[in-house]
Amino acid sequence: VLNTLKMRYLYINIKNKISMKKLIFRKFASDVLTFFLVSILIMGLIVWTLQAVNYFDFVSEDGHGLKVYFAYTFLNFPKIIHRLLPFVFFISLFYTIVKYENNDELNIFWINGISKFRFVNIMIIFSVILMCFQIWLGSYLSPVSQLKARNLIKNSNVDFFTSLIREGKFINAVKGLTIFAEKKDVDNFSNIFIDDSSKGYSRMIYAKSGKILSDNKDKKFVLFNGKVINIDKTRINTFEFDQIDFNLQSFGSNSIIKPKIQEINSFQLLRCIFNKDINTPKECGQGDMIDETKQELLKRFFKPIYILLITILSCYLFTSGKYNPKFNKVKRYLFLIIFFIILISETSLRYATSSNISLVIYFLTPILLF
């Protein structure tokens, strides 16, 4: 009976210690994640707001509607999160470890039999999960959302055409079309000049007055009392009119509609690198475009490995407690070192594909540092 009671006591004691260790790790992970999520959301919204101000040219100059504008800026949010994630994770982890050390909370780990080596291993496992999320975000979600944003611009009509036309100014917000109006009164215009070269030949229209009419299906410029001059390669013909409808629905904007490298899915980019036959996608381009493709693939699939390096360097804070007179110095130097490594990971990417040697150095640097 005594032996049974001892075994039960040992079992309960071990079970309680395991539960306590899980609870401690769960609390630490919760603090890191909470700080990380709040920080990345706030910083992401700040960067998103700044970019949204720059994107307002889609409305003020290119004539797209507010619906397209807000949808476009929202779909670019995953790209912002992808770029900010390593730096925000570093701040979150570094801040939480320093806070735990200053509050003597790290001693709870060591008192309950958790070794520093085990703690570092668990943090590395945690960072591997975050690294996989970063790879998924950069290789799938961000390109898909950016491509959808680009297709919005490509498929949208010029919704704010009326607001683009200003008194006494030549407006060329849409391809192949230039409009000049001497005077403007809401939707009514006077002394209008239009130069249309969108159909392969030049057509110039002058009208004494006109107005823009639009509904859900159609948008047109109704012109009164004017003349049309059609200039082809071999002939010129003119005719006068009392009223003519100039269709605006078919005109696209000057916005870039061709997908950029960062908007192409990863499978197509891999085909660009490994397929050298005549079926290579036209998006791959030549020369510098191939180098950009390689850089984009490195950014999506390899650069997240720096998250592991950030984690293990941040754990160096365990080697010097707050009662050590060198703790503050170690803390400052370690912060600068990690910040410098993050900076290197961003800047070295553009030179990684310049030669085979630089590519090998780029691959080996984070692995050797780790």
The largest sheet is: 6 strands, antiparallel
Strand content: 15-25%
How far do the termini sit from each other?
53 Å
Q: What is the N-to-C order of secondary-structure elements (H for helix, E for strand)?
A: HHHHHHHEEEEEEHHHHH
Task: Give a brief rundown of this model.
The chain is of the alpha+beta class and 370 residues long.
Describe this structure in words.
This protein is α+β, with helices and mostly antiparallel strands. Helices cover 57% and strands 16% of the residues. It has a 6-stranded antiparallel sheet, with no helix packed on it.
Features:
370 residues; alpha+beta; 57% helix; 16% strand
Question: Helices, strands, pairings?
Answer:
Blueprint: H1 2-54, H2 57-60, H3 66-75, H4 77-102, H5 106-111, H6 116-155, H7 161-164, E1 170-174, E2 177-185, E3 188-196, E4 202-214, E5 219-231, E6 236-247, H8 266-274, H9 288-301, H10 306-314, H11 327-347, H12 356-369
Antiparallel strand pairs: 1-2, 2-3, 3-4, 4-5, 5-6
